[in-house]
Amino acid sequence: MISERAKLVSWAYLVTDLAATTAAFGGAHAIRSWGLAEWVGPVYPFADYLPLLAAFILPVWALVFYLNGLYGRRAARTLHTEMSRLFRALVVCALSLAVAVVVFRLGFVSRPLLGLFLLLNAVGVVLGRGAVRAAILD
User: Fold this and answer.
1) pTM (2 decimals)?
2) Helices (H), 31-75
3) pLDDT of 2
4) Which of 21, 68, 106, 137 has the smallest number of CB atoms closer than 10 Å to its CB?
């Protein structure tokens, strides 16, 4: 029973983390396209960003979160441990995305969009994990 519950929590965390990341990217693009376009110029269509999201961001985020102990047996039992692991994982994800943009010469990628995405992603992942904790763990 405990093992099944731990698996359920891990899968719920994975699904909500990836959903929050996808929503954050879409939201950041929408805000950047419609809200900030007058100040920082136009942005490429969302379809141009989909390969970056599907081929890099989602797999790297899942891998980094797993390696930081946010899924599986090493998943945190206390909120403080989970938040510190989550903060560390988000910093590693942000740095890996910045390195990928430079290494792969992704000049079309809007830097304000990435900053907005990282901010929205942090908020979305924390809210999603809070919802999982409220629904399953309590």
Assistant:
1) 0.91
2) 37-40, 46-52, 58-67
3) 59
4) 137
C-alpha neighbours within 13 Å on the C-beta side of residue 111: 6
- Tens digits of residue pLDDT in 87-120: 999 999 999 999 999 999 999 999 999 999 999 9
- Nearest Cα neighbor of 87 from 101, 73, 74, 70 is 70
**Given this model, what pLDDT does residue 41 score?**
76
User: Residue written as tokens 């930081």?
Assistant: 68
Q: Is residue 69 within 8 Å of 86, Cβ to Cβ? A: no
Q: Which residue has the tokens 């938040």?
A: 83
**92 or 81: which leads in pLDDT:** 92
Question: Residue 30 and residue 7: Cα distance in Å, rounded?
Answer: 34
Runs of H (alpha helix) within the chain: 2-30, 37-40, 46-52, 58-67, 79-103, 111-132
